[in-house]
C-alpha cells in the first residue's frame, strides 16, 4: 500500500538572534522520516521543544523544510502545481490545541465553518448553509447555535467547532496538535470519543500529536516518539508502549503518574533536563540523561534501526538493556 | 493530635454585575502535620479559590463571607492584615502553577528567594542571600551560587518551578499549598518536582495541600483526597480507599473516563453535559443533571455529607 503522506529526512532549522547581533542556528527537526497510511492513526509524542509541532507545520505545508521532502499521495509537495496544491490544502486539515485562540472571535460560528467552503469554492450558498448545519450537528452541537460567537461557548464546545471546521471540506487526513490537552478531564473523554467516531465514519487518516501517553495509547495504531528533533523509537502502539526499546520511551512511560498501583513500574527517572537544541549533545542526543549510557553513546549517534519486525529504535544498547524481558 | 489546618464551613463569593458567583460553598477540610491532602476538581470547581481563601488572597470582587480557617487553632479570618502578612510566605508557603507569571521578571531569583528571609526573619541582605544559596541547593538547582544572580527568563520551566518551591520553603513553613505545581511541566520534569516536594515535606514535617486535576498524581502522592464539584466537597476519603471504592457518581464518572482505563480504540465512558453556572440557583444536588442515578428527590433538598465508614464521606443521597 502506498503511503498517503511520507516525510523523507525532514530537517528544519531556524535562525535565532542572540545578543549583540549574533546569529545561531536552531535545529528544531533534525532528520525525520515518517509514513502515514490511509485510514491509519499515527501518534507522535514527545516533550515540549522536541520538534513535534514543527513536524506538524512542515507536514501541512505551513513552513518549508530546510532539507528533505514531503510526498503527498506519492507527489513531492514542493513540486505541486497550483491545482494539486489546492487539492492538498483541502484534503489535509488541522485541529489545534487551544480552542480559545484558534477561532476568530469576530466571526460567527456559521462564518467560521463556511469559510473553508468559500475558499475552496465548494457548493452554492444554500448548499453551504446545509453543510454547515450538518457539521454542527455532527460534532454534537445544535444548528441553533450557529449565529453565536466563540466566546459564548465553553472550551469543550469550542474544540467541537474546531473539529467541525476541519471536517468542512471533507479532508482525507487530519493533523491534530494536542487537541485535548487544554480540556478538562470529563470533557477530554467526550472529545476523544468524537475524534474516534468521525475517524471511523469518514474513513480519515490521523496524525495525532500529544505529550500525553495515555491519550496516545487510546487513539493511535502506530506510535513515534521524538526527542530533540529526532524520532528515537517507532512501531505499533503495543510494541512501543508495552515493550519499549529506547531508554527515553521507558523514562517517559515510567514518569506518568498512574492510578493503578500495579501499573506503577520501576521508576526510570531521566536525569536533568532537555538540552538546548541550540547545542545538542554529541552522539546519542539522550545520553546525558540516560541511566544506561556508556562511552560509545557520547561518541556515535545511533541510527533508527529495525530491532524487531516493524519496531525501530535509535539506541546502541537496546538489545543488551531489554534482552532480559 | 490537633490538626494543622481546619477549615469549617468556608464560603467565598464573587459579587459580579451578572449576579453572585458562589465559588466556594461551605467547605470543610482538615489536615494533619506531615500529611498530603489532594484537592481535586475540574476548572471552575472552586479549588484554587479555596486555596486563595486560606491565604486570604481572594482577588476582588471576591470575598470570604462566612466560615473559619483554623491554623494551629487560631482563626486566620480573625487576624489583622498585618498579622496575616506575618503568616503568608512565612508559616504558610504557596507554590503556583505558572512560574513564569508568578516570579517577578525584573528581580534576580536570589533576591526573590531572599526577600522572605529579610522580611520575616530580619536577616540582612548578605545573610539572606547566603541562606538563599543553601535553599536553592536543597531544591536541586545546580551551581546555586551562580544562579542567584540570574533572572527568571534565564532559567528553564523546571528550574523556575524549583525557584518557586525554594521561595515557598525559605522560611521553613508548617504548611505548603501547591496549586497545580507541575501542570506546566513535562512529565519527566514533573516526576522530578513531585519527588522533590515529597522529600522536603517528609524532612520538614510540613503539611501539604496539593491542588491538581491529575488523578495519577493524586493516587501516587496524597494520603487523603477531597473531590470538589461546583464549589462543594462532594467526596473525601483516604486516597487508596477513594480509588478502590469511589461512591459519588461524579468521582466514579471521572475515574471511568480516564483513557488509562479504556480499551484502545473503543469509546471512553463520559460524563454527559458540563458544569453548572455557579451564578445560578444551586439548591439541590448540583450534579443531578449530569448524574446517571439522580432523580427528582435530588433537586428538592440540599445534600449533606454522610459518613460511609473509615472517614469516607460522600455528599450524595443515592450513594450506597
Description of the structure:
The complex is a heterodimer of chains A (325) and B (320). Chain A has 325 residues and is an alpha/beta fold. Chain A has 11 helices and 12 strands. In chain A, helix 4 (125-138) packs across helix 5 and helix 5 runs parallel beside helix 6 (185-202). The longest helix of chain A is centred in the middle third of the chain and has 18 residues, at 185-202. Chain A starts with a strand and ends with a helix. In chain B, the strands form 2 sheets. In chain B, strands 6-7-8-3-9-10-12-11 form an 8-stranded mixed beta sheet, sandwiched between helices. Chain B is globular and about 65 Å long. The longest helix of chain B is centred in the middle third of the chain and has 18 residues, at 187-204. Chain B has 320 residues and is an alpha/beta fold. The interface between A and B is large, with 41 and 41 residues.
**Spatial extent as radius of gyration of chain A:** 21 Å
Largest sheet of chain A: 8 strands, mixed
Strand content range of chain A:
15-25%
Q: Averaging pLDDT over every residue of chain B, what do you get?
A: 89
Question: How many helical elements of chain B?
Answer: 12
Pattern of helices and strands of chain B: EEEHEEHEHHHHHEHEHEEHHHEE
Q: Tally the beta strands of chain A.
A: 12
Q: What is the arithmetic mean of pLDDT of chain A?
A: 90
> Ends of chain B: how far apart?
31 Å
* pLDDT < 50 stretches of chain A: none
Number of strands of chain B: 12
What oligomeric assembly is this protein in? heterodimer
Amino acid at each position: 500500500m502506498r503511503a498517503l503522506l511520507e516525510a523523507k529526512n525532514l530537517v528544519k532549522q531556524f535562525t535565532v538572534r542572540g545578543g549583540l547581533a549574533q546569529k545561531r542556528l536552531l535545529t528544531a527537526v533534525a532528520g525525520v522520516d515518517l509514513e502515514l497510511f490511509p485510514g491509519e492513526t499515527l501518534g507522535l509524542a514527545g516533550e515540549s521543544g522536541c520538534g513535534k509541532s514543527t513536524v506538524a507545520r512542515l507536514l501541512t505545508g505551513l513552513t518549508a523544510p530546510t532539507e528533505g521532502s514531503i510526498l503527498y499521495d506519492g507527489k513531492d509537495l514542493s513540486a505541486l502545481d497550483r491545482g494539486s496544491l489546492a487539492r492538498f490544502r483541502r484534503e489535509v486539515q488541522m485541529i489545534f490545541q487551544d480552542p480559545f485562540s484558534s477561532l476568530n472571535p469576530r466571526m460567527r460560528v456559521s462564518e467560521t465553518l463556511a469559510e473553508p467552503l468559500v475558499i475552496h469554492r465548494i457548493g452554492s450558498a444554500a448548499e453551504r448553509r446545509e453543510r454547515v448545519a450538518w457539521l454542527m450537528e455532527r460534532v454534537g452541537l445544535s444548528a441553533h447555535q450557529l449565529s453565536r460567537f466563540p466566546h459564548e461557548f465553553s472550551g469543550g464546545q469550542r474544540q467541537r467547532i474546531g473539529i467541525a471546521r476541519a471536517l468542512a471540506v471533507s479532508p482525507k487526513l487530519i493533523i491534530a496538535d494536542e487537541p485535548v490537552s487544554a480540556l478538562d478531564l470529563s470533557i477530554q473523554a467526550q472529545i476523544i470519543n468524537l475524534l474516534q467516531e468521525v475517524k471511523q465514519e469518514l474513513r480519515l487518516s490521523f496524525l495525532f500529536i500529544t505529550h500525553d501517553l495515555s491519550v496516545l495509547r487510546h487513539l493511535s495504531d502506530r506510535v513515534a516518539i521524538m526527542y530533540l528533533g529526532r524520532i528515537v523509537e517507532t512501531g505499533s502502539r503495543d510494541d512501543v508502549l508495552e515493550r519499549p526499546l529506547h531508554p527515553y520511551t521507558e523514562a517517559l512511560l515510567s514518569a506518568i503518574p498512574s492510578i493503578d498501583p500495579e501499573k506503577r513500574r520501576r521508576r526510570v527517572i531521566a536525569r536533568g533536563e532537555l538540552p538546548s537544541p541550540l547545542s545538542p549533545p554529541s552522539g546519542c542526543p539522550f545520553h546525558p540523561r540516560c541511566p544506561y549510557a556508556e562511552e560509545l553513546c557520547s561518541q556515535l549517534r545511533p541510527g533508527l534501526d529495525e530491532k524487531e519486525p516493524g519496531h525501530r529504535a535509535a539506541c546502541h544498547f537496546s538489545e543488551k538493556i531489554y534482552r532480559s524481558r | 493530635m490537633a490538626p494543622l489546618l481546619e477549615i469549617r464551613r468556608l464560603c467565598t463569593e464573587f459579587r459580579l454585575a451578572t449576579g453572585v458567583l458562589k465559588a466556594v460553598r461551605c467547605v470543610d477540610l482538615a489536615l494533619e502535620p506531615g500529611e498530603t491532602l489532594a484537592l481535586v476538581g475540574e476548572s471552575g470547581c472552586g479549588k484554587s479559590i479555596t486555596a486563595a481563601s486560606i491565604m486570604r488572597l481572594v482577588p476582588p470582587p471576591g470575598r470570604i463571607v462566612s466560615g473559619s480557617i483554623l491554623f494551629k487553632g487560631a482563626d486566620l479570618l480573625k487576624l489583622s492584615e498585618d498579622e496575616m502578612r506575618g503568616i503568608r510566605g512565612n508559616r504558610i508557603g504557596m507554590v503556583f502553577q505558572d512560574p513564569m507569571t508568578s516570579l517577578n521578571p525584573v528581580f534576580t531569583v536570589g533576591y526573590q528567594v531572599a526577600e522572605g528571609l529579610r522580611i520575616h526573619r530580619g536577616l540582612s541582605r548578605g545573610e539572606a542571600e547566603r541562606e538563599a544559596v543553601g535553599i536553592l541547593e536543597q531544591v536541586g538547582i545546580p551551581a546555586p551560587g551562580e544562579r542567584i544572580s540570574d533572572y527568571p527568563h534565564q532559567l528553564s520551566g523546571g528550574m523556575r518551578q524549583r525557584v518557586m518551591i525554594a521561595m515557598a520553603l525559605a522560611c521553613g513553613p508548617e504548611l505548603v499549598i501547591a496549586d497545580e505545581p507541575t501542570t506546566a511541566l513535562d512529565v519527566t520534569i514533573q516526576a522530578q518536582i513531585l519527588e522533590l516536594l515529597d522529600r522536603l515535606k517528609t524532612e520538614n514535617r510540613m503539611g501539604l495541600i496539593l491542588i491538581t486535576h491529575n488523578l495519577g498524581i493524586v493516587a501516587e502522592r496524597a494520603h487523603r483526597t477531597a473531590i470538589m464539584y461546583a464549589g462543594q466537597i462532594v467526596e473525601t476519603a483516604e486516597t487508596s480507599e477513594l480509588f478502590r471504592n469511589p461512591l459519588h457518581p461524579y468521582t466514579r464518572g471521572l475515574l471511568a473516563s480516564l483513557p488509562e482505563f479504556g480499551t484502545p480504540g473503543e469509546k471512553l465512558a463520559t460524563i454527559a453535559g458540563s458544569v453548572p453556572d455557579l451564578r445560578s440557583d444551586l439548591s439541590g444536588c448540583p450534579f443531578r443533571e449530569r448524574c446517571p442515578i439522580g432523580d427528582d428527590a435530588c433537586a428538592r433538598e440540599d445534600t449533606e455529607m454522610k459518613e460511609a465508614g473509615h472517614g469516607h464521606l460522600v455528599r450524595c443521597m443515592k450513594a450506597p
